[in-house]
């Protein structure tokens, strides 16, 4: 009976986990804020579509799945009517809208979306656009958040481009022309031609960014916010990258997917045995014990018996090292 309850708990937790994964919003899939402009959405789509395109990820089923998600999200967010419905009513609203005959009916398939954005033929490389500097931040994350998942609010300050009085030269390019300097003789000339654009200036702004921490993230992994780095006039912003770094913990240290801690016992306990209880990172209690002699600095492994699903990206082992 207890075994059945354990299995029931396993499947219940697993079902909830799947629901959370599939509920990822279209904005999260494209890695843009909800108030992103059409241009931000296009740029984010271009980067992600090129990164996860099947031509660059042959045989990678996860990349193919991401590519489909990216195109589905872009189809909705690039359409003003669909995006408005999605913002107000979510995916269920889009389904009802389609069922009532609204929209274009049927939508576009993945290849149509990619081809309409990049053009036909073989996959093109990303066009070269002037880009601001990337900003990299070392982000200390607690073992609790790395074990259970969580989110951190980080204060961010950066230079933001704002309108200013006057005009300026912009979109400058070199144009080549030929000038006749004698009978049958021509000279090739190059002239820089610029447009007149509204003037701009940099202003310092600050705001909070929410960084989502996935279960089991390793040191050095990145969480990227596209175009949230240094801004570039007549170009696109660099990227803001958070490098995950495990913060020191009072009780545990992490080694791969194992947790280690030091337990102090008395001389009598070292000779005849001991029983102790340790609070885990999620506050559940772990009972450890030993019968007989325990040597100094001896490493022992104790199995946990909690009914939790193994997470491929998390702390996979049910056995934890206690030193």
Structural class based on helices, strands and sheet pairing: alpha+beta
Query: In the CATH classification, which architecture of the largest domain applies?
Result: Orthogonal Bundle
User: What count of domains describes the coordinates?
Assistant: 3
Computed CA radius of gyration, to the nearest angstrom: 28 Å
Order of helices and strands: HHHHHHEHEEEEEEHEEEE
The CATH homologous superfamily of the largest domain is named DnaJ domain
**What is the terminal separation in angstroms?**
34 Å
Number of helices: 8
Helicity range of the residues?
Answer: 25-40%
Q: Based on Cα principal axes, name the global outline.
A: elongated
How is the largest sheet built, in terms of strand order?
A: 1-5-4
Beta percentage is 25-35%
Give start-end ranges of low-pLDDT stretches.
1-22, 120-125, 305-323
């Amino acid at each position: 009976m207890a075994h059945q309850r354990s299995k029931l708990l396993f499947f219940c937790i697993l079902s909830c986990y799947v629901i959370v994964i599939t509920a990822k919003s279209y904005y999260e899939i494209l890695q843009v804020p909800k108030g992103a402009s059409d241009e931000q959405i296009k740029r984010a789509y271009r980067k992600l579509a090129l990164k996860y395109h099947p031509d660059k990820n042959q045989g990678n089923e996860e990349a193919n799945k991401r590519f489909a998600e990216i195109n589905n999200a872009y189809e909705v967010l690039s359409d003003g009517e669909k995006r408005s419905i999605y913002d107000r009513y979510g995916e269920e609203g889009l389904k009802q809208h389609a069922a009532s005959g609204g929209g274009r009916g049927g939508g576009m398939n993945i290849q149509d979306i990619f081809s309409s954005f990049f053009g036909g033929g073989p996959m093109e490389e990303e066009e070269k656009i002037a880009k601001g500097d990337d900003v990299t931040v070392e982000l200390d994350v607690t073992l609790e958040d790395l074990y259970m998942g969580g989110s951190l609010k980080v204060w961010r300050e950066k230079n933001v481009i704002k309108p200013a009085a006057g005009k300026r030269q912009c979109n400058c390019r070199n144009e080549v022309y030929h000038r006749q300097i004698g009978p049958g003789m021509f000279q090739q000339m190059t002239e820089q031609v610029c447009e007149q654009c509204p003037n701009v200036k940099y202003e310092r702004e600050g705001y909070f960014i929410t960084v989502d921490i996935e279960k089991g993230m390793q040191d050095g992994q990145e969480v990227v916010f596209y175009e949230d780095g240094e801004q570039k006039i007549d170009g696109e912003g660099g990227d803001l990258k958070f490098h995950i770094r495990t913060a020191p913990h009072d009780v545990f240290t992490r080694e791969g997917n194992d947790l280690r801690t030091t337990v102090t016992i008395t001389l009598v306990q070292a000779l005849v045995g001991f029983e102790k209880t340790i609070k885990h990172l999620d506050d559940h209690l772990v009972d450890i014990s030993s019968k007989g002699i325990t040597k100094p600095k001896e490493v022992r492994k104790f199995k946990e018996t909690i009914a939790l699903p193994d997470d491929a990206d998390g702390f996979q082992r049910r056995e934890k090292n206690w030193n």
